[in-house]
Amino acid sequence: MDAEASRPLSSHLRSALTTFRGAWSHAVKLALDIALPTLCVACREPVEGEGVCASCWAKLSFIAPPFCPRLGIPFVYDPGPDMLSMEAIANPPAYARARAAVRYDDVARTLVHALKYQDRTDLAPAMGRWMARAGRELLDDTAVLVPVPLHWRRGWSRRYNQSGALARVIERQTGIPVAAEALRRIRRTEQQIGLSRPQRASNVQGAFKVAPDRQHLVAGRRVVLIDDVLTSGATVDACARALLRAKAASVDVLVFARVVDSHRTPI
Length: 267
Ligand SMILES: [Zn+2]
Hints:
It is a single chain. By secondary structure, this protein is α/β, with parallel strands linked by helices. Strands 1-6-5-2 form a 4-stranded parallel β-sheet. Strands 3-4 form a two-stranded antiparallel ribbon. The longest helix is centred in the N-terminal third of the chain and has 27 residues. It is globular, with a radius of gyration of 23 Å. It binds zinc ion.
């Protein structure tokens, strides 16, 4: 008697049922794809693929040279190579270089909020790809990616770690590994929104730490910190200090969007 014939009838039924279920769920998914086209996250128009329609994509302000080699703040004219911004000289950060894919404007804010608060994880691949492009001079095979650890909202409720998701996309794009557990937030911080620049800095001072048993993940490594938005830079600066204390060789910063004041000029 061959093996096929020896299988009990219930086994044949089960496998037929599984095949049917697979085909059915595929059909349902197809129907849903037709019935519910993806909407542009910014303007709610139907869109194919990545979540942002062509006209909203055109409204995103991608950051391109010339910009401050230290802070990545775009200049309104090209001051020549290696000219730093006034901010970089007056208030040098603990990190070496920061780069951002886009300016933090209305469309960028919509994308960041959708990723962070509305479970639009489908946006992470496009946002991460734009970041990988903006940060290519930081991303070589000696680097390790460290996402800014999960923020805590009032009431200690957990939310989706958007920085971790963006880091995973960049890891897939570049092959540079993520050390997701390297950095810890060791105390609760107030929300940075509405705080002045000095308040922001003191709010996050000492809030991050590399645990002794995690130091090997960053010691002697070029760390690229990953976050969604850079505002005053206080959070990434506090993270960079913690990483440097843990003997990271250097720390650079790569974000999706950064706040840029208008009329920025080099010194
Ligand atoms: Zn749109």
